[in-house]
Amino acid sequence: MAPQFSLAHLTVLHSTPPEMVSIAARTGYRWVGLRVTAVTPDEPIYPLMRDRAMMKETLARMADTGVGVLDIELARMDAATEPEAYLPLLEVTAELGSQDIIAQLPDADRERATERFARLCDLAKPFGIHVNLEFVSWTQTPDVASSVAVLSAVNRSNAGLLVDTLHFSRSGCRLEELKNLPKEWFRVAQLCDAPAQAPATVEGLIHAARNDRKLLGEGGLAVRDIVEAMPATTRYSLEIPNLTLEGVIGAEEFSRRAIRTAESYLQGVHEAALMSYSMV
């Protein structure tokens, strides 16, 4: 069985949630991932928790097309943000029929960050929602090891690890770090490619991550190896923002190229992993 893919919002961030659902349906995606909170002050925001007209249209297009919502982002808990601030995000996630949110912990106080992550998991539990911790190379939770420390400490059944192939590579993580982790931690992974050589500055890392990722097979990251190191049940979200190419060919054609290159690049890898997984 060929893998199914989700279209991450960062890939086409200037498309509204209803537009994304329609683009995903026309280009072959099973799901979309929606961003309902702004991460930077100058990016578009789609607050479905307040914009009921947009929520109604999003739900209508989902019903018409069969495209679902894989995940909702972003619960980003820095030093000033308590998990209760994301209760509206959890409510939106449940209304959209998703069971996964993405969280980040850019907080240098490890004890506080861990305690807040545990509380977010507890808030999400009654909604039937899993909290997927994403590590980002330039934050205070930069890699697999720091994420595993948080997940092990909170010991919540609805907590998991989100691997983004760009951040995995830029953080210098090793494949061996993934192979012995609990399989139930891996629900969603974000895939992209990029040059093997990382930018030399934090500003360069952020710019490349938000604006200049590469389609699978067009960079120098070991994406196949990372995919093979995760359970075959992991679902794949294509997070591949490339403002230059998208600006030339448009959001829909860029989304189409993203999924077609992913299908070609991962041909055989997912099937082999499924076979291996079924024998365990």
UniProtKB/TrEMBL annotation:
Stored InterPro entries: IolE/XylAMocC-like, Xyl_isomerase-like_sf, Xyl_isomerase-like_TIM-brl
Gene3D superfamilies to which the protein is assigned, alphabetical: Divalent-metal-dependent TIM barrel enzymes (3.20.20.150)
Domain of life: Bacteria
Domain Xylose isomerase-like TIM barrel: 23-243
PANTHER family the record matches: BLL3656 PROTEIN, HYDROXYPYRUVATE ISOMERASE
Protein name as it appears in the record: Xylose isomerase-like TIM barrel domain-containing protein
Origin species: Noviherbaspirillum denitrificans
